[in-house]
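In the design runs reported in the main text, the only information available to the sequence generator was the tokenized backbone. The following block is the verbatim input for one such run; it is reproduced so that readers can re-run the procedure and compare outputs position by position.
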């Protein structure tokens, strides 16, 4: 018989006596580089000294000192290199059953800060970094802060963020759906900051992933689309357009 204290929950834990290097050559993994931000196929290194570490990954509960149960998959970990010759950044990856579990530094969402005010871009970058590290409540809070900075930059006044978002719709030309999306970002940020706020059932990876996408769409519509159209117009010639 075993007591509950003899059972240990297993997550990223190698089985006793099963960690090794063996002949497991590093496979190629497609990720976005955390350094240069380019997508690429990250490979390992040639030679017998650069094999991945391998072990059996077990899920659920196993008894301490006993043989592992049948719920296991092959896991491996090792270094990969960015294929961009101007970068050559190193990333440590952990895989299980052929799927990528974690990478260090973490892969981040794509974000182009061109044309976005410094404070707004800084808040958005921090939200994306928090999301990549699994700090989802912190990511939701920083998305909300980016929204506040946007209202401040555009001169949207009001006693509350709700009022400032409504005022924002009068100072910039964007679809009403994005204003509704801004309110959803406010709700999510409130839930991340306050125990009593319960608009969202959970604040996890999917919720913050969608929130960041909505925020990035809002920032592109506010700042980058106008700049893009202005650059296109600047390419026009001096001849009048035909009717």
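Verbatim output:
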């Amino acid at each position: 018989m075993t007591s509950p204290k003899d059972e240990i929950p297993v997550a990223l834990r190698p089985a006793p006596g099963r960690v090794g290097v063996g002949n497991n050559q590093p496979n190629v993994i497609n990720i976005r580089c955390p350094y240069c931000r380019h997508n690429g196929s990250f490979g390992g290194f040639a030679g017998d000294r650069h094999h991945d570490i391998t072990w059996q990954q077990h899920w659920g509960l196993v008894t301490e000192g006993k043989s592992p149960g049948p719920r296991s998959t092959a896991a491996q970990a090792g270094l990969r290199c960015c294929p961009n010759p101007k970068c050559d950044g190193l990333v440590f990856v952990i895989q299980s059953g052929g799927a990528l579990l974690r990478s260090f530094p973490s892969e981040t969402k794509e974000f182009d800060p061109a044309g976005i005010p410094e404070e707004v871009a800084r808040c958005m970058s921090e939200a994306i970094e928090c999301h990549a590290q699994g700090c989802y409540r912190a990511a939701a809070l920083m998305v909300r802060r980016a929204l506040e900075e946007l209202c401040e930059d555009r001169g949207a006044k009001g006693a509350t963020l709700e009022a400032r978002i409504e005022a924002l719709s009068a100072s910039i030309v964007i679809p009403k759906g994005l204003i509704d999306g801004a309110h959803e970002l406010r709700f999510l940020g409130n839930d991340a900051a306050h125990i009593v706020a319960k608009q969202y059932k959970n604040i996890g990876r999917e919720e913050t992933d969608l929130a960041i996408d909505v925020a990035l769409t809002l920032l592109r519509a506010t700042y980058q689309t106008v700049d893009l159209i202005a650059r296109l117009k600047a390419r026009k010639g001096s001849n009048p357009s035909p009717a």
